[in-house]
Design goal:
The protein is α+β, with helices and mostly antiparallel strands. The protein has 17 helices and 35 strands. The protein has 6 domains: 72 residues, Arc Repressor Mutant, subunit A (Orthogonal Bundle), CATH 1.10.10; 63 residues, OB fold (Dihydrolipoamide Acetyltransferase, E2P) (Beta Barrel); 67 residues, OB fold (Dihydrolipoamide Acetyltransferase, E2P) (Beta Barrel), CATH 2.40.50.700; 162 residues, no CATH class; 169 residues, no CATH class; 83 residues, Nucleic acid-binding proteins (OB fold (Dihydrolipoamide Acetyltransferase, E2P), Beta Barrel), CATH 2.40.50. It has a 7-stranded mixed beta sheet.
Length: 723
């Protein structure tokens, strides 16, 4: 019996092996001898089994006999392209725009594909457990080849254990390729090859980052994890330092001179790069000339230079908790391109004639030279708005000393605030969604340890700047977008919210007594705004804000304009932050190109650049979030003995996430750590329910927790309930 079973197994294996072989090169035909050679069998019995399997697979229409004795896989519509989203235990899902639902791939059908890879897959005709399943047939493009991890040294070899939970295998590194890293070091490792029969890939250590848990090591690890640089190549720095940054007469003559117009900046107190400034002038007809002046980065950063190549690759500045990783070298970002007070600067401007009802009567776009009369922090401008006075007290002044601002500047800020509020009201009436999500900030000591947590909220001064930046971005996009024939431009687009995600949001917020109306676009935006307004100041605010944002489509860059759903704009671009965003630099170049009367440029070239910029923005956002998580864990390490009041922010089959109200730190209470009963997960109620006691822990409930474990390396907090 045993021999018979093995024989049957062998036949089945041949069948699958034949399919795998033919799938590996679908355009090629194979005869039974070639297949036997590829499968490394040469006995007569095995060859006969292969012939039988070939005829069987032909009859099942899995393969076809192209000509006598030559077989080929049947190409079918069941082959698709998609991206790998790695799940637990080495399994994955494939996400594809051409598929209605994600396709499950079991770990044994991954065929060495990793998270984020673009792959070709075959979808089985059958469904298992009601879900589509498939098998990866080809890796089209590796998403990444570098990983951050910890070295484990042995006598003859080493392994790097990746930090990412999306990387299911360790990386084998020969001792000759370790850069003499010590056991336990955190490193950056590059994938080399993955041999056919090996369980894990081979790699080479390319950078030693330091000891796990060390502050700089962990920050550099976050950047390295997402392929983000933390220093400029020496040749790029040298190139930037040799740029002529003088405000010369020849260049001034080519520009609109606005140095005599009252101009000022409003930025965060600790800002070093000032992208934008506002100018204000009352006109004889009672209207106002308002200029939005943006650093003219494209004047200094020329296409085809190593500086431009570096800026394009970075695509964005990265704002971590304790530092900024700039897109441009400091000589430009903090000096030449920064609109510093009492300095003349080359700028690219959008200038509007606006009446008392905030309607635009005239507009002008072009290169200018400006002089900033003053610099304000948001707190200083806010004080002027609230008090209607120009006296700035010492406790909020940038200088640390009480001073009185000029009357003309005070009046300009008050009028701009008045107009901004009209613009905002119009925008909200048109269906814009108001996200005023609370930002977590840390007070750091001299060695970057977090000693306190505070929240950054958007006040009138922030909204003043926001509205005029939105206006410039919108009007620049309209100016190009409405031209005929159509011209290639860089748009910031945002698709409508996902219906399924909105339905999920409704289920969750109903737990807090909120109702949403998704009948049409107008009722959807109205009810979302009502929801966001109603949760302000409540325990569930941060949770609801986060969940609502997740319902939204991701805003991206594209040459194909579909409008911006969240802002309720038909045309929108990014024009106002070229120091920190490369798409803004591209928008400046294209705008100037068209102002000079040129015809449209290639959309395909710019669409590729848009995709790159969108991807880099996504990675930068993830790095920024990781740095916040890291700092939250670091902060909580010093508060292990304390009890905190938190809100249940998520419920899963393995436990519940709790967000501490006073500092927004989130951690997990594992189901096994909840004492006194056996708890089961109820997906309908978003709750854990005790089998015996019927005690319920539900999404949105308040609970008291203490820190059980704080893992700096994994950036994870474990809580226990304070019962």
């Amino acid at each position: 019996m045993k021999r018979k079973k093995n024989k049957k197994q062998s036949v089945n294996n041949y069948s699958q092996s034949i399919l795998n072989l033919l799938k590996s090169d679908r355009k090629k035909t194979f005869n039974h001898k070639q297949i036997a050679a590829k499968l490394k069998v040469n006995d007569a019995s095995s060859r006969n089994q292969i012939i039988k399997n070939l005829h069987k697979l032909t009859a099942q229409k899995e393969i076809k006999e192209v000509e006598r004795g030559k077989f080929q896989i049947i190409s079918s519509t069941e082959y698709f392209t998609g991206k790998v989203d790695m799940a637990a235990r080495g399994n994955a899902y494939i996400i594809s725009d051409t598929l209605d639902e994600d396709v499950f791939i079991a770990s044994n059908n991954m065929h060495k594909a990793l998270h984020g890879d673009t792959v070709e897959l075959y979808i089985y005709k059958r469904k298992k457990n009601g879900r589509q399943e498939g098998e990866i047939t080809q890796i089209i493009d590796r998403a990444r080849t570098e990983y951050v991890g910890v070295v484990q040294l042995n006598e003859k070899f080493s392994f790097v254990v990746p930090d990412s939970n999306k990387m299911p295998v360790d990386i084998f590194v020969p001792l000759s390729k370790t850069m003499k890293a010590e056991d336990g070091d955190k490193v950056l490792v590059s994938l080399e090859e993955w041999p056919d029969k090996a369980d894990c890939p081979n790699g080479e250590i390319i950078k030693i980052l330091g000891k796990p848990g060390d502050h700089n090591t962990e920050i550099h690890s976050i950047l390295a994890e997402y392929g983000l640089p933390y220093e400029f190549p020496a040749e790029v720095e040298a190139f930037a330092n040799n740029i002529d940054t003088s405000i010369n007469k020849e260049e001034i003559a080519k520009r609109r001179d606005m140095r005599s117009t009252l101009t000022f900046t409003i930025d965060p107190k600790d800002a070093k790069d000032f992208d934008d400034a506002l100018s204000f002038k009352e006109l004889p007809n009672g209207n106002y000339e308002i200029g939005i002046h943006i650093a003219d980065v494209s004047h200094y950063v020329k296409e085809g230079t190593i500086l431009d190549d570096e800026a394009y690759e970075r695509a964005t500045s990265v704002y971590l908790v304790d530092r900024v990783v700039p897109m441009l070298p400091e000589v430009l970002s903090n000096n030449a391109c920064s609109l510093r007070p009492l300095e003349e600067k080359f700028t690219f401007s959008a200038v509007f004639e606006i009446n008392k009802k905030a309607l635009i009567e005239n507009q002008w776009f072009g290169r200018t030279v400006t002089y900033s009369d003053a610099r304000f922090a948001y707190e200083e401008a806010q004080h002027i708005i609230e008090t209607k006075e120009g006296v700035i007290p010492a406790e909020i002044a940038i200088s640390g000393q009480t001073y009185t601002t000029e009357t003309a500047i005070k009046n300009a800020i008050l009028k701009l605030d008045e107009l901004a509020k009209i613009l905002r009201a119009k925008r909200m009436k048109s269906g814009a969604i108001s996200f005023d999500k609370t930002e977590v900030k840390f007070n750091l000591d001299a060695v970057n340890n977090p000693v306190g947590v505070f929240f950054k909220t958007s006040k009138d001064a922030n909204k003043l700047i926001e509205e005029f930046m939105l206006l410039a971005n919108k009007k620049v996009a309209e100016f190009i977008g409405k031209q005929t024939p159509q011209k290639t431009f860089i748009y910031r687009i945002h698709d409508e919210a996902d219906d399924q995600k909105l339905a999920g949001l409704q289920r969750i917020v109903s737990q807090f007594g909120h109702q949403l109306n998704f009948k049409n676009k107008e009722t959807t935006t109205h009810s979302l705004n009502t929801l966001l307004k109603n949760v302000k100041g409540t325990k569930e605010q941060n949770l609801v804000d986060t969940l609502t944002i997740r319902c939204m489509s991701k805003a991206v860059y594209s040459t194909k304009n579909i409008g911006h759903y969240g802002l309720a704009f038909k045309y929108y671009s990014h024009f106002t932050s070229p120091i920190r965003r490369y798409p803004d630099v591209m928008a400046h170049r294209l705008l100037q190109y068209y102002l000079e009367g040129n015809k449209s440029t290639s959309a395909d070239v710019y669409e590729e650049k848009c995709k790159h910029a969108s991807n880099m923005e996504y990675l930068a956002t993830k790095a920024e979030r990781d740095s916040i998580k890291y700092m939250q864990v670091k902060y909580m390490q010093d508060h292990k003995e304390e009890t905190f009041l938190g809100v249940i922010s998520g419920v899963t089959e393995w436990g519940m996430y709790v967000e501490i109200i006073e500092n927004k730190c989130e951690g997990m209470v594992r189901i096994r750590d909840i004492k006194g009963d056996f708890y089961r997960f109820d997906a309908e109620e978003f709750a854990l329910i005790g089998e015996r006691t019927k005690t319920k822990y539900q999404l949105g409930d308040e609970v008291e927790v203490r820190v059980k474990h704080a893992d700096l390396v994994k950036k994870h907090l474990d809580f226990i309930l304070n019962i």
